Amino acid sequence: MILIETLKQEAEALFPQLVAWRRDFHAHPELGFQEVRTAGIVAEHLTNLGLEVSTGIGKTGVVAMVERDDAPADAPVVMLRFDMDALPIHETTGLSFQSENPGVMHACGHDGHTAIGMGVAQLLAKHRNQLNGRVKLVFQPAEEALGGALAMINDGVLDSPKPAAAFGLHLWSRLPLNQVVVQSGPLWAAADGFTITVQGKGGHGAMPHETIDATLVASQIVVALQSIVARNVSPVDTAVVSVGTLQSGVAANVISAEAVLTGTVRSFSPAVQELVFRRIEEIANGVCQTFGATCQVEIRLGCPATINAAAGAELMQGVASQVVPAEQIAQIDPMMVGEDMAEFLNRAPGCFVLVGASDGDTDELNSPHHNPTFDFDERMLPTGVALLAGAAVAYLGG
To answer: Is position 333 annotated as part of the catalytic site?
Structure first.
């Protein structure tokens, strides 16, 4: 499509502004549901583009519609989503635009996503009268396991009008610069959590026979939980069960009466998810019964698996082929990280893509996401703008 080629060129010309936006957001990161400054800048930019803007959606989310002046009421609607929140991490990059908020850092690239969203808005607003429908721009708070997508959905972000498809992207520091990962089916996993609270009987460390050692019981549970993936989940399926914390005891010579385990579960299919949840409860209760202890098991549902629709992936494949060379379009093994873009895709099937942001000038891998030294190559920003603006144009044109 000619318009996508135009959008690509205009996105490249916007590079200095994209960098400036990104670095400003990076220097002023805000945690989930606290993105007041970020949302304010986004809303002001969208308003200055002549768009009708709604704020406070999902507490700190921002929504705007791009449409032609004579768009009919029943015009098709496509949604583009950009997340805005940072992480509770103390930055150690030493960048000139390093975080000015101690203990808060854009360590996952959402500063880049927000800048991309502002660029997409600028280009689509410029070409609004060439759109064959409406584009709903959604700037989401609290993606980092805080339920920002559901908060926006509960506030009606998918209503009036309802988008038929949703598209989004995530920059990825470990993929080659401007490599675009497009694939149908599962891309990222469901991310759930659990807490197991073990109740034993405390006592003197020198008289263990008078106690029920909660630390010992909890340790046995940690080991036994590893059998779920090894011996209960089919080898052709995929799951992760990881215990992240074990807290028990207050003194070296005191046997603890209580221990608390927390962990994460990752899966792609509801059947595997249900199996893992059931086995966590059975194993925890069974181990406790063996040792004479009791326990409470709490399962916390997080975001579902990020699954791309076949039609959405096919559309993005076509757009990507006009934005980057064919050899830069790739597929990967699904990853076990979570992303609440899944909530939108489950209601408006589309596609979520990855854009490589590794600095190709060095042989060393970039720091991983959620790391105090995380950074990414800003040359991916125009690619992200062209991809998502192009996806909207292609979807409405189709």
So the answer is: no
